[in-house]
Amino acid sequence: MGEEWWSRSCKVNSSNTCREGPTAITFHKCNNLNLRNLVMLDSQQMHIAFTNCEEVRASNLKVNAPASSPNTDAIHISSSTEVTVINSMISTGDDCISIVGNSSNIEVRNVSCIAGHGISIGSLGRAHALSKVEHVLIQNVSLSHTKNGLRVKTWQGGSGYVQHIKFQFAQMENVSRPIIIDQYYCDSSHSCANQTSAVRVKNISFTHIKGSSATEEAIRFACSESFPCKEIELEDVQLSSSSGGITTMFCWNARGSTEGRVYPLPCPSFDDSVIEQKSIPGVISYSKSS
């Protein structure tokens, strides 16, 4: 019966007071948990959350809510380790799967995401928080008509790291912004202040990522000036335009390597040890609602 809650959301009506809604099901401090064959419909906000859990296996799940429903993350993983999510179909109005600090050894396989905001690591580091996410494998996933594809998002001012992340064998269909690393994430109605500290991002690989982008900018790496993204790997990435035009890649303080065919063409600065760009108009203090 989530619709009653969605209509009161500040993301639906800016005159409403922003407040948290309930998560439909939360598993807290569970060990050796096996969750399977569950259907979830129209949660008030997040559908399923695993918090402070260890050794979780979630399989054959179906999660469904309208694309317009706010904050209805399907599966949210927080401060947990050894979590596996497999063989599931998800269609919601927010993140298909979200992984936040402090989580490690997470595996997502054979998951289909329709509409919503894609698969996200983050957001991390809000309100100067310390966040650590590492050893994550996202493999054999499909994303269709989502607002984002495979994303890492961190707030300015945080600390900690995101590292050893592998996105492999993903199929995109008409996805806006299929690949994103965003260290300037700002989910606020106001611009976020510039800050020098950041959650560090390194050793992130995108391998065998193919399909179509709904936007010209198919790959976006917007990284911190103080702590640039390092060891970003692109291998066999083919992202064409849904409309038949070109696709592009944007880089700001991102350093990495490419292997095999990569399209859109990498930024000239991507493989350089020194970033030559001097300014990034309209990025440092922008705000977003996705």
TrEMBL record:
Main location: secreted
Family note: Belongs to the glycosyl hydrolase 28 family.
Source taxonomy: Eukaryota, Viridiplantae, Streptophyta, Embryophyta, Tracheophyta
GO biological process, one term: carbohydrate metabolic process
Protein name: Polygalacturonase
Signal sequence residues: none
Organism of derivation: Stephania cephalantha
SUPFAM superfamilies attached to this UniProt entry: Pectin lyase-like
Active-site residues, Swiss-Prot/TrEMBL: 117
PANTHER family: PTHR31375
InterPro entries (alphabetical): Glyco_hydro_28 (IPR000743), Pectin_lyas_fold (IPR012334), Pectin_lyase_fold/virulence (IPR011050)
UniProt-recorded Gene Ontology molecular function terms: polygalacturonase activity
Intracellular or extracellular location(s): Secreted, Cell wall
Annotated keywords: Cell wall, Cell wall biogenesis/degradation, Glycosidase, Hydrolase, Secreted
